[in-house]
């Protein structure tokens, strides 16, 4: 539980400096609702296909929103 509070603290600080935060929500079974993540430690564990798909989805989602914001100026 502490792990998620730590993430929220970091996100709050970055948003304060103008970061655009676009979470993926609960649409995938990998990572967390805040976005894609994989902990590989010493490298013995590699990201699963689902984790890679979530990272790709999040990148595409952020790019789509950024493009819309840029077009609205």
TrEMBL record:
InterPro entries: Flavoprotein-like_sf. GO terms for molecular function: NAD(P)H dehydrogenase (quinone) activity. Gene3D superfamilies: 3.40.50.360. GO terms for cellular component: membrane. PANTHER family: FLAVODOXIN-RELATED PROTEIN WRBA-RELATED, NAD(P)H DEHYDROGENASE (QUINONE). Belongs to the WrbA family. This is NAD(P)H dehydrogenase (quinone). It comes from Solanum chilense.
